[in-house]
């Protein structure tokens, strides 16, 4: 059954998800990933943006990366370093809601939302042309995880599914949001998913809706193609750039991208028997028949 979104529901949902904001300015980038190549990417007949590209010496795969709302790709040095280390080129567009987008003020949350999917469609096309034949995964943080899940087949009302995407790696995914993320939002996801969050990963109330820490597990609890979920004790919405706690997420992230991005059966066996740090919680849901 198709989902019809009315404007009132969209506004309410947009307000809730709009709380998923940028990483605080005080956080530092510690991982040495080097300067990216910057591409002028035409995303539509009327708009272009910057596409940042990090490449390992010999790419084995490609990551289509979507940032948190208001953020920008360079803020994710730690995660990008992990992905580069596994042999993945990382392609990350500057979305119109980013503080680094020069015409940010021209877009509201509602008008900027579909532009994120336009960005990722163009990024996927660039990946197919520049890295032909390499496997592709989608990754994101916060609102960017929602976008990545849509690329993997979720939220079908956005028509963002990219059949090239083989898996989704997400940090701090949004929970349910009326009008935008309904109860069946991720039942159409077609690929394996790993969601990483923390026990303190909360978002303040906006327009009557707060995101509690447990809500970030919603995609992992409902996507049918097999899911993994890691909850880090003490991890906040900035877990992806937490110098103390982020290292506890690296091993399963590496195994997941190798297993489902590169088709490494040995990595998959290791992932299925991996044990988290004391105090953290690790959940595996097998693919539904």
From TrEMBL:
<protein>
    <submittedName>
        <fullName>Alpha-beta hydrolase superfamily lysophospholipase</fullName>
    </submittedName>
</protein>
<feature type="signal peptide">
    <location>
        <begin position="1"/>
        <end position="30"/>
    </location>
</feature>
<dbReference type="InterPro" id="IPR006311">
    <property type="entry name" value="TAT_signal"/>
</dbReference>
<keyword id="KW-0732">Signal</keyword>
<dbReference type="GO" id="GO:0016787">
    <property type="term" value="F:hydrolase activity"/>
</dbReference>
<keyword id="KW-0378">Hydrolase</keyword>
<dbReference type="InterPro" id="IPR029058">
    <property type="entry name" value="AB_hydrolase_fold"/>
</dbReference>
């Amino acid at each position: 059954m198709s989902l019809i979104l009315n404007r009132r529901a969209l506004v309410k949902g947009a307000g809730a998800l709009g709380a998923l904001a940028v990483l605080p300015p005080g956080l530092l980038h510690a991982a040495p990933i080097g300067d990216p190549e910057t591409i002028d990417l035409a995303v539509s007949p009327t708009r272009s943006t910057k596409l940042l590209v990090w490449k390992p010496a010999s790419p084995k795969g490609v990551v289509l990366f979507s940032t948190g709302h208001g953020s920008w790709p360079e803020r994710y040095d730690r995660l990008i370093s992990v992905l580069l280390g596994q042999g993945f080129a990382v392609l990350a567009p500057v979305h119109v809601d980013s503080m680094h987008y020069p015409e940010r003020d021209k877009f509201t949350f509602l008008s900027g939302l579909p532009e994120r999917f336009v960005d990722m469609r163009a990024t996927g096309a660039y990946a197919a042309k520049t890295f032909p034949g390499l496997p592709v995964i989608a990754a994101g943080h916060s609102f960017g995880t929602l976008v990545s899940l849509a690329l993997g087949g979720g939220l079908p009302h956005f028509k963002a599914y990219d059949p090239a995407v083989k898996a989704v790696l997400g940090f701090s995914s949004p929970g349910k949001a009326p009008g935008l993320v309904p109860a069946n939002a991720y039942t159409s996801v077609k690929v394996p998913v790993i969601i990483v969050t923390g026990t303190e990963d909360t978002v303040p109330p906006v327009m009557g809706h707060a995101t509690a820490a447990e809500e970030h597990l919603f995609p992992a609890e409902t996507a049918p193609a097999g899911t993994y979920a890691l909850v880090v004790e003490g991890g906040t919405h900035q877990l992806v750039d937490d110098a103390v706690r982020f290292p506890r997420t690296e091993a399963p992230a590496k195994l997941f991208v190798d297993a489902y991005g590169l088709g490494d059966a040995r990595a998959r066996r290791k992932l299925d028997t991996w044990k988290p740090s004391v105090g953290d919680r690790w959940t595996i849901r097998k693919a539904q028949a």
